[in-house]
Amino acid sequence: MVNITHKSPTLRKAIAQAVVKVSAQSTIEAIQQKLVPKGDVFEMAKAAGLFAAKRTADMIPDCHPLPIEYTAVTYQINGLEITAKVEIHTIYKTGVEVEAMHAASVVALTMYDMLKPLDKAIEISNIKLLEKKGGKTDYNEDVTDTYASVIVCSDSIAAGNKEDKAGKAIIAHLERLAIKVLDYTIIPDEVPAIQALVKEQITKGSNLVIITGGTGLSPRDVTPEALRPLLDREIEGAAEAIRAYGQQRTPYSMLSRSVMGTIGNALVMALPGSTKGASESMDAVFPAILHVYKILKGGKHS
Question: What range(s) does the MoaB/Mog domain occupy (predicted)?
Answer without folding.
Answer: 149-292
